[in-house]
Amino acid sequence: LIDLVLGSNRLAIIDACRNADWLSGHIEGAIHMVNTDMTAPALSKAVTRSKPVVFYCNGPRCYRSGDAATKAIAWGWKRVYWFRGGVEEWTEKGYPLIR
């Protein structure tokens, strides 16, 4: 994820976690969009189809970001990434979360 962020100032980061998880901490600059509430029109308001987008959630045992990424691909987004490690990996590597 760090390489993607450093390599593209156009990258959108989507946090697919539930509201309580978002409030307990998220990656700075991320857009909150719960996977179960995500629709193609809502996603297109946040991210154009030409822009790279990465989805993350709580960690490798959380299905939300994978589900959101799969939906985005089905709706026509081409540059979709999945940060499977999510918040768990982010914090293990010492990166900060904001509240």
What are the SSEs and their pairings?
Blueprint: H1 2-7, E1 12-15, H2 19-24, E2 31-32, H3 40-46, E3 53-56, H4 64-74, E4 80-83, H5 86-92
Parallel strand pairs: 1-2, 1-3, 3-4
Characterise this structure:
Strands 2-1-3-4 form a four-stranded parallel β-sheet, covered by helices on one side. It is α/β, with parallel strands linked by helices. β3, α4 and β4 form a beta-alpha-beta unit. 37% of the residues lie in helices and 14% in strands. The model has no long low-confidence stretch (mean pLDDT 93).
Strand content: 5-15%
From the helix content, strand content and strand pairing, which structural class follows? alpha/beta
* Count of distinct strands: 4
Q: What's the average pLDDT?
A: 93
Which descriptors would you attach to this protein?
99 residues, 5 helices, globular
Summarize the structure.
This protein is an alpha/beta fold and 99 residues long. The chain has helices at 2-7, 19-24, 40-46, 64-74, 86-92; strands spanning 12-15, 31-32, 53-56, 80-83.
